[in-house]
Specification:
Layout (H helix, E strand, L loop, with lengths): L2 H6 L28 H8 L14 H14 L3 E5 L2 H12 L5 E5 L4 H13 L3 E5 L4 H10 L4 E5 L11 H10 L3 E5 L15 E5 L13 E5 L1 H14 L5 H11 L2 H20 L4 E5 L9 H7 L6 E6 L2 H11 L4 E2 L9 E3 L11 H7 L5 E5 L5 H14 L1
Helix pairs in contact: 3-9, 4-5, 4-8, 6-7, 10-14, 12-14
The structure holds pyridoxal-5'-phosphate.
Pyridoxal-5'-phosphate binds next to α4.
Length: 388
């Protein structure tokens, strides 16, 4: 073989029988082959197991899917290139022209926009309520045949708590599927509820280091098969190297999530006692309206702490700019702490009444707590509050 041909067909290094890598290798390959035409045809038709093209599946990504499914307590999962990609893929797969979707003012902004703007263009209608309005949910489901109910708990950024058992019961009784964006709670929580589809931005706690994006939808094998049918056409596959990094991040997930929740609790208690702060929105505080419900649903309350500054938007601006440890940046769940001022919260797709219902005030700030020492975080918050 010509030495330059060899560069494209390097020597294989098969592992001897009984010898294996302790950390699974990254299958950084777009293509996979079989020896014969017959096997290849059978595989392409889905009649023979194996891999052929990365846009459909890849062993490294598959390992991540199986790990996440087990953590969330379901049989299967599908990973995509980002949380929003998995949302878009799932919503496109599950809805048809003429369907109705029930969603909420507290949902992560792009989720609401996907339903209202993208699905709306294809003849899908929606109703928007507060996720705590159980009577309203019951009324809408009874009056309007509904394909999907999309919830979050805690919600981003206000940490509202949804009554998951009550909402899933109502949805089932009226023939609607439930899709829960479980990003803030993380894939170790809420598996005990009869949620049909769990959705996660893996960019957050799962990867945990703020250096990679990904998303996953997790459900029964039958429900994932419905989403997988369109996956290849949407083309939002997760890259195997990203899948490897997320799988690596998951090794420390339990330790990180718990430690970040503990720090968030300390931060919430500190803020609740501070004279510049009107109200703290953290489900771990006994004063939070969803605290009792959260205690029955969650083992850890998460790392997002939102609060209202008495001084309003300008105080929010001064506070966020004065922070030294906290970066002013989007995202959450990673090891470094972040802050968003009122000017960067809220969604322009909501009218004034809906904004009020969502609860984001003129002085609302969102913190995402990382793994810095609690003493350093509190000292930074104290000096920034003094300058706010
Ligand atoms: C609750 C929630 N869902 C979904 C997403 C979207 O995830 P990604 O940024 O990975 O697309 C985010 C991102 O902030 C989020 O907070």
């Amino acid at each position: 073989m010509d030495k330059f041909t060899r560069l494209n067909h390097p020597p294989e290094v098969p592992l001897p029988a009984g010898n294996r890598a302790v950390v699974a290798p990254i299958y950084q390959s777009v293509k996979f082959e079989f020896e014969t035409v017959e096997e290849t045809v059978r595989n392409w038709r889905g009649e023979q197991p194996g891999f052929n093209y990365l846009r459909t599946s890849n062993p490294t990504t598959r390992q991540l899917e199986l790990t996440l499914a087990e953590l969330q307590g379901r049989a299967d999962a599908l990973c995509c290139a980002s949380g929003v990609a998995v949302l878009a893929n799932t919503l496109l797969a599950l809805t048809r022209q003429g369907d109705h979707v029930l969603c909420f003012v507290e949902l992560y902004g792009p989720t609401r926009k996907l339903v209202r703007q993208l699905l709306g263009r294809f003849g899908v209608t929606h109703t928007l309520l507060s996720v705590t309005d159980l009577a309203g949910i019951e009324r809408v489901l009874a009056a309007t045949p509904t394909r999907l109910v999309i919830i979050e708990s805690p919600t981003n950024p206000m940490n509202r708590i949804a009554d998951i058992a009550a909402i899933t019961r109502l949805a089932r009784a009226h023939g609607a599927l439930t899709l829960m964006d479980n990003t803030l709670a993380g894939p170790h929580q809420h598996g005990q509820f009869e949620v049909d589809y769990f959705l996660h931005s893996l960019t957050k706690f799962a990867s945990g280091h703020g250096d990679v994006m990904g998303g996953a939808v997790i459900a029964s094998a039958e429900l994932i098969a419905r989403v997988r049918a369109d996956f290849n056409l949407v083309g939002a596959a997760l890259d195997p190297h990203a899948a490897f990094l997320i799988q690596r991040g998951l090794k420390t997930y339990a330790l990180r999530y718990r430690a970040q929740s503990e720090r968030a609790q300390q931060v919430a208690e500190f803020l609740a006692a501070h004279p510049a702060v009107a109200q703290v929105h953290y489900p771990g505080l006994a004063t939070h309206p969803g605290h009792a419900l959260a205690r029955t649903q969650m083992s850890d309350f998460g790392s997002v702490v939102s609060f209202d500054l008495r001084g309003g938007a300008e105080a929010g601006r001064r506070f966020t700019e004065a922070l030294e440890l906290f970066a002013m940046a989007a995202s959450l769940g990673a090891t470094d702490s972040l802050a968003l001022p009122p000017q960067l919260l809220g969604s322009r797709d909501l009218d004034a009444g809906q904004q009020r219902l969502a609860g984001i005030g003129a002085g609302t700030v969102r913190l995402a707590i990382g793994l810095e020492s609690a003493a350093d975080l509190l000292a930074d918050l104290a000096q920034a509050l003094a300058r706010a």
